[in-house]
Amino acid sequence: MFWTLKEWFWLERFWLPPTIKWSDLEDHDGLVFVKPSHLYMTIPYAFLLLIIRRVFEKFVASPLAKSFGIKETVRKVTPNTVLENFFKHSTRQPLQTDIYGLAKKCNLTERQVERWFRSRRNQERPSRLKKFQEACWRFAFYLMITVAGIAFLYDKPWLYDLWEVWNGYPKQPLLPSQYWYYILEMSFYWSLLFRLGFDVKRKDFLAHIIHHLAAISLMSFSWCANYIRSGTLVMIVHDVADVWLESAKMFSYAGWTQTCNTLFFIFSTIFFISRLIVFPFWILYCTLILPMYYLEPFFSYIFLNLQLMILQVLHLYWGYYILKMLNRCIFMKSIQDVRSDDEDYEEEEEEEEATKGKEMDCLKNGLGAERHLIPNGQHGY
């Protein structure tokens, strides 16, 4: 049964143009062609990248974060067995009736119970240091892979002449630069997928899963069907913008607002040019229209373009979020990641309440907000 399914899966009519056989893509005369077995190496390389990431975050990202003044924050919460049990076994977001009952049971005010739950939720949220480490690692990889991609492609004729993408297809030999470009890129996306459950979760968590799976599926399929030349163009178009986004995140977590805003504007410009102009009108034109001058439509041609169109839908989805962030930046003078689950707002609200609490204590003791004595009959402002 397994071998029958395997033979059916690798039928030439699913992967190759008519009249082309797998035997036509066997190595000969010193020429090497793609093989599906090459992709097995992406899994061990993904785990190797996870190890490298761990070392990078500890010995590079953490010291860099400290130099920016970002420290590991320890959020302390007053121990309360009743509230802790409710938090773990019932819900992290209690209703008003629940708060009323818990306040009675613990002999606390409703406001104190609300504050406890807010502090407890913040305690489980990722710290600013963790966010910085993740952004720093992605920045380092995207910078490396972008430079490598430019180095691999700058002298290739299909970068400047899209007709060369299909010249001789599918009997196009595999170059060492193409091999490593693909293997590294796929290994990186596998490593991101393996870490999704541990990395910072945002509102577009599901979109990230779809994106990573689509990217891996697209690269795997393009590799097996020998769409290597168009595949390298797709990768460089994506990588060139991501490095600016991760650098903007790093400076955002460091509190360098002006630098973050500038980098985000650069990212937005490159994103809209590369993914909403170059990708649909250059890459999709190359994969959808130009092959018809060389070949008749066949299954892998249709499947390839279907995946690229799904990718373009994701571009529009993220473009919507980017526009929202640009709107905040222009009209509110600050950039906040709209994908975040309001944790920054809750943390700020908690800090404000703590500050107000201290001020109230000071006022009760006859001190101003700055802990100066207030003469009788005067206010602290």
UniProtKB/TrEMBL annotation:
What InterPro entries does the record point to? HD (IPR001356), Homeodomain-like_sf (IPR009057), Lag1/Lac1-like (IPR016439), TLC-dom (IPR006634)
- The protein's predominant localisation is endoplasmic reticulum
SMART domains for this protein:
HOX, TLC
Establish whether keyword Endoplasmic reticulum is in the entry: yes
- Which is one GO molecular function term here? sphingosine N-acyltransferase activity
Q: Which UniProt keywords apply?
A: DNA-binding, Endoplasmic reticulum, Homeobox, Lipid biosynthesis, Lipid metabolism, Membrane, Nucleus, Transferase, Transmembrane, Transmembrane helix
Q: Which reaction does it catalyse?
A: sphinganine + octadecanoyl-CoA = N-(octadecanoyl)-sphinganine + CoA + H(+)
Q: Name one Pfam family in it.
A: Homeodomain
TM annotation in the entry? 38-56, 135-154, 179-198, 301-323
Q: A Gene Ontology CC term for this entry?
A: nucleus
Where in the cell does this protein reside?
Endoplasmic reticulum membrane; Nucleus
- DNA-binding positions are 85-128
Annotated TLC domain ranges read 130-331
Q: Which domain of life is it from?
A: Eukaryota
Q: How does it sit in the membrane?
A: Multi-pass membrane protein
Q: Which GO terms describe its biological process?
A: ceramide biosynthetic process; cornification
Homeobox domain residues: 83-127
The pathway noted for it is: Sphingolipid metabolism; Lipid metabolism; sphingolipid metabolism
Quote the protein name from its UniProt record.
Answer: CERS3 isoform 1
Organism field: Pongo abelii
| Name of the coding gene | CERS3
